[in-house]
């Protein structure tokens, strides 16, 4: 049972974050508050530490804490690949994409696509980006947060979600990106601290790494410590699925998704943006150890009779089944003393509120710049901010309405990646070919986005309506790769049918060679993006070799 102390800590934290968010978003002069540049991009004043922490906070939500612990319990470290592979795509963002985004001065990524391709590409990406932000970044986060708060406090899931939505929306809609980034910086620290606490307590309860390996050997489950599984592994995430499929998901998510990249677009300059992105890459090493590993410790504790799972067990056809969605909540209540439980709940709320805040700000930006301003180009800054605020409010309501549908997934983390696998391929394709191939034409990109998205929807529908078909049996990571190959085929073919006619802008938005971006000098010393990229790459290779 949650103590009064923990409830006070939780409520105090929520009040603190909302107050900080409102202060950060409204402390500027009134004229600056209604400036669209200040509202949507924090006046382009962000520096690398804040960018890195904000990127991490926007990425990591309550969903990650809950679902990565669930995956650690169910399959071990395997789903940690989604965290570590992100480091490679963040290097791509820093080295190959950031220079174009910052130099072109774009406010949104659909704006970038218009400059590289045409207006139709901008419209489609804006529409898809808003839909994905509502479903992936907001609705799934609400669902995970609602499940946790209902389990811990006994509050009706929808009641708690509506309350969190109102409070997060308050400072986000009023304060814009500045409020979002300031609160995300604080929330990243709280989130990481909370995750470290649960890791330490689960480690101590089990008795350390040696006891973990002993239990896994007894259960014939040593594969749970492996990040790389053989081809044909029943998880559907063999090494080939990860190394072929993840880049398709990761490049869209980290390099072409407005919700994520908007933090870098608000950077003071290109070097600050690159350093912030790579800083996030280093932080992404942590989740395997502080989000996934605690779930594996919970599995070992359960098998050692040191953890009671009766509250999340049900009997189905005479067999005891564990609903592992609630494993993180049980770890909090069974492993932590009063007081620390409140801190962990604050960490969960940090993840929930930060991702929702980031998504709302990107929806506001996309709706204002890429949709409303198109039809009313003379719109004032004040009006754009107003449109953005109303768009964010509507997005909150829609996301709450989607919750019953999304709750049908057994694993929320797999659910979110399943959806991304069908959204990402055409977007990843047009961004990659646009930046690395000068012959990629606007008309070809337009058809690729349209046909690729339609193909993804059809495949997703077949998979859900009749999972016993050949398509339904393909792991979602490999499906993402196959859809990407289809999109590349469409775009390359159409680029020869409809040859590119470059504008003065588009001529400056592709690399002539793979090595060209590495000729940019950057900061001197250890802060140089080339040194940081090489260091991060080396660390990741070493980690994969150890946990293979």
TrEMBL record:
UniProt keyword terms in alphabetical order: Membrane, Transmembrane, Transmembrane helix
Record-level GO cellular component terms: plasma membrane
Membrane topology reported for the UniProt record: Multi-pass membrane protein
Pfam families given in the database record: SSF (PF00474)
Entry's transmembrane regions: 6-25, 46-69, 84-103, 124-149, 155-174, 186-203, 236-255, 276-302, 340-366, 387-407, 419-437, 444-462, 474-498, 529-547
Principal cellular location given in the protein's record: membrane
Gene Ontology molecular function, alphabetical: D-glucose:sodium symporter activity
Cell compartments where the protein resides: Membrane
InterPro entries: Na/Glc_symporter_sf, Na/solute_symporter
Family indicated by similarity: Belongs to the sodium:solute symporter (SSF) (TC 2.A.21) family.
Database matches in NCBIfam families: sss
Stated name of the protein: Sodium:solute symporter
Species assigned in the record: Pedobacter frigiditerrae
């Amino acid at each position: 049972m949650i103590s009064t102390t923990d409830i006070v800590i939780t409520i105090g934290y929520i009040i603190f974050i909302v107050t900080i968010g409102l202060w950060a978003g409204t402390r500027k002069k009134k004229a600056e508050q209604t400036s669209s540049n200040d509202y949507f991009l924090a006046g382009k004043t962000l520096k690398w530490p804040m960018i890195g922490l904000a990127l991490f906070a926007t990425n990591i939500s309550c969903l990650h804490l809950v679902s990565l612990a669930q995956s650690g319990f169910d399959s071990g470290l395997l789903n940690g690949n989604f965290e570590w592979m992100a480091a490679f795509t963040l290097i791509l963002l820093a080295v190959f994409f950031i220079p174009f985004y910052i130099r072109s001065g774009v406010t949104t990524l659909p704006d970038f696509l218009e400059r590289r391709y045409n207006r139709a590409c901008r419209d489609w990406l804006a529409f898809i980006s808003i839909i994905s932000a509502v479903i992936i970044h907001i609705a799934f986060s609400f669902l995970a947060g609602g499940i946790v708060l209902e389990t811990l406090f006994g509050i009706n899931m929808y009641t708690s979600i509506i309350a969190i939505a109102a409070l997060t929306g308050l400072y986000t809609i009023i304060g814009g990106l500045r409020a979002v980034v300031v609160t995300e910086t604080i929330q990243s620290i709280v989130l990481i601290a909370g995750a470290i606490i649960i890791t330490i307590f689960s480690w101590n309860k089990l008795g350390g790494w040696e006891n973990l390996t002993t239990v896994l050997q007894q259960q014939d489950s040593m594969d749970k410590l492996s990040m790389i599984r053989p081809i044909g592994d029943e998880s559907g995430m063999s090494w080939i699925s990860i190394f072929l499929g993840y880049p398709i998901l990761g490049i869209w998510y980290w390099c072409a998704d407005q919700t994520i990249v908007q933090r870098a677009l608000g950077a003071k300059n290109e070097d600050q943006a690159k350093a912030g992105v790579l800083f996030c890459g280093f932080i992404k090493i942590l989740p395997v150890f502080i989000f996934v590993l605690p779930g594996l410790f919970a599995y070992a504790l359960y098998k050692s009779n040191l953890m009671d799972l009766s509250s999340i067990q049900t009997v189905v056809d005479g067999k005891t089944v564990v609903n592992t969605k609630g494993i993180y909540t049980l770890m909090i209540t069974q492993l932590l003393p009063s007081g620390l439980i409140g801190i962990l709940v604050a960490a969960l709320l940090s993840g929930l509120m930060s991702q929702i805040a980031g998504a709302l700000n990107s929806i506001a930006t996309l709706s204002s710049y890429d949709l409303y301003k198109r039809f009313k180009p003379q719109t004032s800054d004040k009006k754009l901010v107003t449109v953005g605020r109303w768009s964010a409010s509507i997005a909150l309501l829609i996301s709450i309405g989607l919750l019953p549908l999304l709750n049908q997934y057994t694993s929320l983390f797999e659910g979110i990646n399943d959806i991304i696998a069908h959204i990402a391929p055409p977007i990843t394709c047009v961004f990659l070919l646009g930046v690395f191939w000068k012959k990629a034409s606007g008309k070809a990109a337009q058809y690729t986005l349209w046909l690729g998205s339609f193909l993804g929807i059809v495949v997703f529908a077949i998979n859900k309506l009749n999972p016993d078909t050949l398509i339904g049996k393909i792991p979602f990571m490999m499906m993402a790769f196959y859809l990407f190959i289809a999109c590349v085929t469409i775009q390359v073919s159409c680029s020869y049918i409809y040859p590119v006619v470059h504008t003065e802008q588009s001529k400056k938005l592709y690399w002539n060679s793979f090595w060209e971006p590495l000729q940019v000098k950057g900061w001197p010393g250890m802060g140089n993006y080339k040194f940081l990229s090489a260091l991060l790459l080396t660390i990741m290779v070493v980690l994969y070799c150890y946990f293979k």
